[in-house]
């Protein structure tokens, strides 16, 4: 497995009253890391070819 290090600072708005990161925030961090990987590889996250748009749509997302 290949790893890609990414570091994010949790903002107050990312947490609940107990200061624990809200589970939905993880999905924002995952997407930001995906974009960082594409930038690192010098690849477009979305590609347009005339009227045609291609990318990586989500089919299923799960987090435990």
Question: What does this molecule look like?
Answer:
This protein is an alpha+beta fold and 64 residues long. The protein is built from one helix and two strands; from the N terminus they run H-E-E. The two termini are 20 Å apart.
Largest sheet: 2 strands, antiparallel
Helices and strands, in N-to-C order? HEE
User: Helix segment count?
Assistant: 1
Shape: elongated
Radius of gyration: 15 Å
The total strand number stands at 2
Helix fraction? 25-40%
- Taking strands numbered 1, 2, ... along the chain, how are they ordered across the largest sheet? 1-2
Summarize the structure.
This protein has 1 helix and 2 strands. It is of the alpha+beta class and 64 residues long. It has a two-stranded antiparallel ribbon.
